[in-house]
Amino acid sequence: MTAGFATQAAQTPSTGITPAMRTRASIETVLCGMNSSRFHNRPDAERFRLEEELRALRERLVHAHEQERVRVGRELHDDIGQRLSLLALALSMLAQDAAQIPSNISGRLSELSRHAAGLASDLHRLSHELHPVMLQQLGLEAVIRGFCHEQARTRHIAIQLEIRQVPDVLRQEVALCLYRITQEALHNVVRHSGASSAMVRLAGIADGIALTVMDHGVGFDPDEPRVRASLGLTSMLERIRLVDGRLLVHSKRGEGTRIEAHVPLRVSK
Amino acid sequence: MSIERLPKVLLVDNYQPLLIAWRRFLGSWCEVVGTVSSGRAALEVARECRPDVIVLDLNMPELSGLDVCRAIQQTMPQVGVVLVSAADGAELRRTAFEVGAAAFVPKYSAGCELESAIRRACREQPSFQSSTTGENERD
Hints:
- The complex is a heterodimer of chains A (about 270) and B (about 140).
- Chain A has two domains: about 1-130; about 135-265, Histidine kinase-like ATPase, C-terminal domain (Heat Shock Protein 90, 2-Layer Sandwich), CATH 3.30.565.
- Chain A is about 60% helix and about 15% strand.
- Chain A has helices at about 20-35, 45-95, 105-130, 135-140, 140-155, 170-195, 225-230, 235-240; strands at about 160-165, 195-205, 210-215, 245-250, 255-265.
- In chain A, strands 1-2-3-5-4 form a five-stranded mixed sheet, with helices on one face.
- The longest helix of chain A has about 55 residues, at about 45-95.
- Chain B is of the alpha/beta class.
- Chain B has one domain (about 10-135): 3-Layer(aba) Sandwich (Rossmann fold), CATH 3.40.50.2300.
- Chain B has helices at about 15-25, 40-50, 65-75, 90-100, 110-125, 125-139, and strands at about 10, 30-35, 55, 80-85, 105.
- Chain B has a five-stranded parallel sheet with strand order 2-1-3-4-5, sandwiched between helices.
- At the A-B interface, helix 2, helix 3, helix 4 and helix 5 of A face helix 1, helix 4 and helix 5 of B.
C-alpha cells in the first residue's frame, strides 16, 4: 500500500508572498494617501482616480482571496484527503486480514481506520468550505441546502431555509457569489449574533435572484467602519459588485440583522 | 450446491493510488475488468467489457461521475453504478440516486461500505441475477 503515499507535492507559492498579500499592501498604500490631510485638498479628478484605483484593488483582492481558497481547498481535497482515504482503506484491509493478525491488534486497526475516515471526512468539510467543487456538479440550490444542513448540525443553530424558483443553470460567478455571501452571513450569525435561529431565503425573481439571510440576534451599527470590516461586509460588497448585483444590510443594535443580496441574471458584461 | 460467478467490476477514479488499492481490496471476490482514470475512458471500457458494476468517482475533470452515470443509465442500463466521492452529504446522496446510481459511498468509508454497495448494485441488476442463476441451474 506504500504506493499510495508517493504523490506529487502540491504547488505552493515559492516566496510565501501571495497575490492577496501583495494586493492588500497596495490597498494600504492607497488608503494612506486617501487618509492624509492633503487628500481633501486635491482636485476632484485626482480624488476620483484614487477612489477608482481603490475599488479596482478591492476587486482584485476578492479574486486573489478566491484563488487562495481554491488552491488550499484543492490541495486538501485532491491530495491530503485522498491520501487519508487511502490510509483508512489500508488500515481496514489490514484489520480484515484475520488469518495473520491477532484479534486484539485487528480491533485496534479497525479503530485507527475509523479515526482516519473521520479525519478525512472533517478535512473534506473544510476543503468544501474553501473551494465548493460541488457547486458545479450539484448546482447552487443543493450546495446551499447542504451548507445550511451542515451549519445547523455542527453549530447547533436552527435554520429555516426557503428556496424557490432558482434557475437550474447559473453562471459560475453568480452561483459562487451567492454561495459565499450565504456562507459569510451565516458565519456572522453563528459567531456574532447570539441568535439560536436564522432564516435563509433564496428565490428566483422577475429580473434575477434574491438572497436573504436574517436573524433576530444582537444586531450592530452598519455605519461603523470597524464593524463592517470585521463582519466581512466589505468583501460581500466587492463580490456582489463583480456580478453587477447589490447588497443591502439592515441592522440595529438589539434588533437583529437582515442581509439582502440581489443579482441580476442578465448582465452587461 | 450453488456457485455464484464473481461480479465483473470496472473501477474509475483519476487518483491512481486509490485504483491500485481498490483493485487489491476487491480482488478476492470481484473480477476487476479494468481500471480507468477518466469518464470518457470509463464509457469506452464499459462498452467493451460489459461489467456488472462500475465503481465511479464523482469528481473527475471533463466528464464527471454524474455525467457518466447518466450516460450509463441511457445506454447500458443493465450496468449497476456505485458512485464514490471524497465528499458526503444528504444532497450529494440524493443527486447520486437521482442520476441512477445503485449506491453511494464516501471514499473514506470504502473499507467498510464498498463491498456491500457492490453486492447491492449486483442484486439490483437482472442480468447478473440471471447469469448467476443460470450457472446454478447448470450445476
